[in-house]
Specification:
The protein is of the alpha/beta class. It contains 13 helices and 13 strands. Bound molecules: pyridoxal-5'-phosphate (PLP).
């Protein structure tokens, strides 16, 4: 069996589907774009999405000439509620995107059923929730289609990479047709990705982590390495040259290998999340509520701090490795939101959360030092 066949089967087993419904791409955002296009999204259409997402999501919508319509989030779930979606539906609404933010799905079954009754498509942004489930059913299986990312910081990684799952089989033919136009990754970008994957394997657990992370960010900014986003994707809504790109063999090979570690990762993330919730809840601080843990796969653990700059500084001094996801409603862009048609006033909860959020480390075998650090600085938490 070749890598592609094997990897498809591994994914299909987790997603309770057949391998024919899975399609690979260079990145998750490309999978989203293909789904939207297969759904016939075009000029003048509206696509509903959470106002607490990654900027590449509205980019894919804008590349097709459609308008992103943002909905504010619920403070506990960090997802959109169906009651917030209903009022923004118009006759132009063609798609609703449900995101399992940080690994948590909520109301996705209700939203999918509601949308179906209105002849509106649904897409699960499953870039955070792969491997988890909602009320016993795998994330990614609720909507007409779902897309997934295997970028550095996602459920498991192939450096960069992504795939889609098509649940509405009326769309498969269209996807097959579109995929004939995928561009093949170039030699240099593939080679550079391969080097990065090797480097990450070697240095991930190194004591030089912080230094390497900083070097990587600088190199990525300078365009020296194969980073997650092109500079232009964070500045405008014009489709970059070479955007519609297929997967490379190295991604499929790495995916097939790294996915075998997924269950282990899910287990330690969940276990650590319980410890964070215990500590934060007993101190009366913002936390992921106990009753949400069952449906949460904890790609990230969100906590809120009153002075993020200061908190990050102290954390780094203590060798606590934090993540900084969704420090803006359109991560990682932090100004000129009007380019993406986002008015911050329409997403007050997302704006407040993103100004205070930090992500606590989840993939460590032992977080006792992190817990100790948190206890010492508990007054900085909100
Ligand atoms: C990472 C991410 C994406 C895009 O994934 P890529 O593989 O980097 O294209 C989309 N949506 C959300 C919410 C993400 O966090």
């Amino acid at each position: 069996m070749n890598y592609k066949t094997k990897y498809k089967q591994q994914l299909a087993d987790i997603l309770y589907t057949t391998p024919n419904n899975i399609y690979f791409y260079w990145k998750g955002r490309v999978a989203l774009y293909a789904i939207l296009k297969a759904m016939g999204i075009k000029n003048g259409d509206e696509v509903i999405l959470p106002g607490f997402t990654c900027v590449v999501v509205p980019n894919a919508i804008k590349y097709l000439g459609a308008a992103p319509v943002y909905v504010d989030i619920n403070k506990d779930t960090l997802n959109t509620d169906i009651e917030k979606i209903k009022p923004v539906i118009t006759e132009k609404t063609k798609v609703i995107i449900c995101q399992n933010t940080f690994g948590l799905s909520s109301q996705v079954d209700e939203i999918a059923a509601f949308a179906k009754s209105k002849n509106i498509y649904t897409i699960e942004d499953c870039t955070h929730g792969f491997g988890g489930s909602y009320n016993g059913k795998p994330n990614g299986t609720f909507c007409d289609a779902a897309f997934f990312s295997t970028q550095w910081n996602k459920s498991y990684s192939t450096g960069i990479g992504g795939f889609s799952l098509i649940n509405n089989n009326e769309l498969n033919g269209k996807i097959d047709e579109l995929n004939q136009y995928l561009i093949k990754p170039g030699f240099i970008e593939t080679f550079s990705l391969q080097l990065m994957i090797k480097a990450k394997e070697t240095f991930l657990n190194s004591s030089n982590y912080w230094r390497l992370r900083r070097i990587y960010r600088l190199m990525s900014k300078a365009g020296i390495v194969t980073g997650s986003s092109k500079d232009s994707e964070l500045k405008n809504t014009l489709m970059p040259v070479g955007y519609f790109k297929s997967s490379a063999n190295i991604q499929l090979k790495t995916g097939s290998k790294n996915i075998q570690n997924l269950n282990h990762l899910l287990t330690i993330r969940k276990r650590n999340a319980i410890l964070y919730t215990e500590l934060l809840s007993s101190a009366g601080k913002y936390h992921v509520k106990e009753e949400l843990h069952n449906n949460h796969s904890f790609l990230k653990y969100p906590a809120l701090v009153s002075n993020r700059k200061e908190f990050e500084k102290i954390a780094e001094e203590n060798n606590i490795v934090l993540d900084n996801w969704f420090c803006s409603p359109l991560h990682p862009v932090d100004d000129k939101f009007s380019i993406w048609e986002l008015n911050l006033k329409s997403v007050p909860i997302a704006s407040e959360i993103s100004s205070q959020i930090i992500n606590l480390p989840l993939e460590m075998e032992n977080i006792s030092e992190v817990l100790l650090f948190m206890k010492k600085n508990i007054n900085m938490f909100v």
